[in-house]
Amino acid sequence: MAFSSTAAASTAAAFAAGKKSVLIVNTNGGGHAVIGFYLAKDLLAAGHAVTVLTVGDEGSDKMKKPPFSRFSELTSAGATTVWGDPADVGAAVGGAASFDVVLDNNGKDLDAVKPVVDWAKAAGVAQFLFVSSAGIYTPSDEPPHVEGDAVKESAGHVGVEKYIAEQFGSWASFRPQYMIGSGNNKDCEEWFFDRIVRGRPVPIPGSGMQVTNISHVRDLASMLALAVESPGAAAGRIFNCVSDRAVTFNGLVKMCAAAAGAEPEILHYDPAAVGVDAKKAFPFRNMHFYAEPRAAKEVLGWRSSTNLPEDLKERFAEYASSGRGQKEMSFDLDDKIIAAA
To answer: CA–CA separation, 174 vs 130, rounded Å?
Structure first.
């Protein structure tokens, strides 16, 4: 792809104003894609030049779903959107393109991310950011997870973080957990709404007092944006990219029901006794899984804006308008749990 003279002039003006040119390498699936979308909007609003490279083909069926179906919101604000293979970033973005910052919001292991890192280093990129995962922490008897806690050395994200640290002086890694927000195409709160609006019990493994963390994606994007604007403070740091409040499974059911204007019916069960795999029957890890954003608060001056009860009201309004609550759905695993319980 060749950049137009208008785009080049716009980028030059951005540099003259002290702004940065940022490349976001964005996944084409899963929950992380929406992080890149929100970050692009934040950076554009702050006057930075943004290019979003999405993995794959612009004409694929995946691009008909959010957040990709909303990319016009980015281009209308001045972003450049391209599609291609992260293994050959230069071909995807055009040989004349230059960037101050690259964010990899796609790869989960070194095979996927190393070509992006190597290209960025050879191209003279000043700062490299990586969206990792809080799932790499080893289970702890002393929650919450904080930056510096032990991680699973075999996890692909860990290898990526180590390699980036070897290649860049100015780098940072961000470890998100579960997220909500308009444009997310991976079920989170929708799983609960699906049952609540149909008057079905919500099956919760165990006592329901397991603690987790659910963040609005705007919080994750705002943390990443601060790292772009304060590279010195962010350099060489790991950040738990999460909100600063925990929620229990039972509490989440109650909040979702309140957002839907309904009374919740919670059904607790023992997965082993019922004979179901909790990983398939429930959208979250059946354990305490909670990280805190201590480094972002201390180093970047970041503050969370997630207000889960209010954010879920916003999410239910979009859920209701989508018509999903009226669609035919099967609840085979739920029915097995209900019958056994």
So the answer is: 6
Of the candidates 184, 298, 169, 182, the one whose C-alpha atom is nearest the C-alpha of residue 240 is: 298
Length of the chain counted residue by residue: 341
Contact 52, 80 (CB under 8 A): yes
Instruction: For residue 43, give the nearest of 234, 181, 229 by alpha carbon.
Output: 229
Q: What angle do CA 24, 25, 28 make, to 5 degrees?
A: 120
Residue tagged 């960037």 (tokens): 99
Instruction: Pick the closest to residue 84 from 1, 183, 184, 185 (CA basis).
Output: 1
What whole-number distance in Å separates Cα of residue 53 and Cα of residue 194? 33
DSSP classification of residue 87? G
Q: What is the CA radius of gyration of the chain?
A: 21
pLDDT in tens, 144-197: 999 999 999 999 999 999 999 999 999 999 999 999 999 998 889 999 999 999
Range 191-194, long-range pairs (CB < 8 A, 24+ positions)? 191/283, 192/252, 192/253, 192/256, 192/257, 193/256, 193/260, 193/315, 193/316, 193/319, 193/324, 193/325, 194/324, 194/325, 194/329
Question: For the chain, which residues make up each domain, given as ranges?
Answer: 5-180+215-241, 189-211+246-289+307-340
pTM: 0.92
pLDDT digits (tens, 9 = 90+) for 207-265: 999 999 999 999 999 999 999 999 999 999 999 999 999 999 999 999 999 999 999 99
Fold annotation for 5-180+215-241: Rossmann fold (3.40.50)
Judge: domain 189-211+246-289+307-340, CATH 1.10.260: no
